[in-house]
Amino acid sequence: MKSWKKMLLSLTAAAGLVAYSVPTYAAQPAAKAPSAQTQITVNGKALDYAYGEVLARKGTMLVPVRLTAQALGAKLQDVKDGTVRIVLGGKTLTLKDKATLIGGVSFVPVRSIAEATGYDVRWDGATRTVMLVSAKTGEAARGFMWEVKNGPTTVYLVGSMHIADNTFYPLRAEFEKAFAEADYLGVEINISQEATKAQQEKVLKLGSYQDGTTLKDHISADTYKQLGKLLEANGIKANAFDSLKPWVVETTLGSLKSSDAGYEASEGVDLHFIQQAIDRKLPILELESYDSQLSMFNGLSDDLQERNLKAAIENFDTIADSTDDLAKMWKSGDEKSLLAMTQSLAEDPEYYKALIVDRNVGMANKIEGYLKSGKAEEYFIVVGAAHYLGQDGVLKLLENKGYKVVRK
C-alpha cells in the first residue's frame, strides 16, 4: 500500500473540505447561470458556465471549449489556428470541428466535443435542453450501499467518494430508487454551498499561524526545501504557502493534483445527493459538523502533519494514479480493497484514531438514533466509504448494537 494512498483517504474519508473551505487556494469560481433560452445537462445535471454561455449559430449550439471539456471529464490542451486538442484518460484527442473565437473565448459545436468524450447528444425541444448522456455499455457502477432495519424504520448506508468525475454517473438504479423513497438525507456535513465568510475566517484562523511564525519554523529544513522545489516546478512561488499549517498545505496539494486529473468535489457522490435533496426540499441531516472536521485535522500532532505533508510532496506525481485506483475500487464495489485501504490507516495509530475510530463512534450513535425513531421513515445516509468496514467500522459498530446489516 503506497503511503500516498493512505493519505489520499483523507480526501475520501472526510468531506471535500479543501474545495469548499480553503478559499484562497482551492475554492471554485462562482457559477453563472446558462442561457435562459437553452441549457445543457450532463447525465441529468445542469451545466452552469462561469463565462461564455451557450450560443446558437445557424442551428448549431456552440459551447465554450475549456469549461465544457472539464464538465465532460477532459482537459483542454490547446487551441491553435482553430484546431482544438483535449486530453482525456491520458490520451490527446483532436476535435473534428474548428473553434470559433467569440469575445476572447473559444467555442465549438456541442456535438463535436460531446462525441469526442464519449457522450450521446439528445435534444428536448419542450424545455430547450441539450442533454449529454454517457454512451456507456454494461451495468452502472456497483458502489457501496447497505441496508439496516429496525421495526418500521429503514436506514440505507452509502459509501461516498467525496471527489469524483462524471464517469461515476448515472448511478446504479438501486441507489436512485432508495433515495427517491427517502424521508431524510444524512451526510457528514452539508457542502451544498461554498464556505461562508465566517467559515472561511475559521479556516484561515485554524489553518494559518497566528503567532508570527511561518511554515518554515514548524517543519524540517529538508521538507521545506522539497516543498519549495515542488511549488516552483508547478509555477507557484516557493513561499506561497508559508502562512499555512502543514495539514492545509497537504490537502491543498492533493486537491490541486486530483483536480488536474479530473476529480472534483463538485462531482462527489455526497454532493450529487445533496443537490437532489435541495431540489426535492428533502431535510438534510449532518452527522458531523464543519467545526469538528476542521478541528480534527488541526488537532493532528506537528510530527504527523509533517509526515503527511512530506508523503504528499514525495508522491505528488502519483496522486492521479492513486485517485484512479480509488475510483476503480468504488465503481467495482470491491469490499476487499476498501477494507485493505482502511486497515492500512491503522499503521499510524494517531491518524487512524482521529480520522476513523473516533468519528465512526459518533456516526454510529447518530445512525442508531435514526433507527430508534419508531416511525415508518427512511434515512439515506452518505458518508466516506472508508468509514464502514473493519472492526472499527460503522457497520461493525451497528452489528455490535444488535442490528443486521445487509449489502445491497
Provide the structure class: alpha+beta
Mean pLDDT: 84
Helix residue percentage: 40-55%
Q: Helix count, per DSSP?
A: 16
Number of structurally distinct domains: 2
Can you give a write-up of this model?
This protein has helices at residues 3-13, 17-21, 23-26, 65-71, 110-116, 173-180, 197-207, 221-233, 246-260, 269-280, 290-298, 302-314, 319-332, 335-344, 349-371, 394-400, and strands spanning 39-42, 45-46, 55-57, 60-64, 75-80, 83-88, 91-94, 100-102, 105-109, 119-124, 129-134, 144-150, 153-160, 184-187, 284-286, 378-384, 405-407. The model is unreliable at 10-15 and 23-36 (pLDDT under 50). The protein folds into two domains: 3-26 and 140-407, no CATH class; 39-127, no CATH class. The protein is α+β, with helices and mostly antiparallel strands and 408 residues long. A six-stranded mixed β-sheet has the order 15-14-16-13-12-17, with helices on both faces. A hairpin with a 2-residue loop joins strand 5 and strand 6.
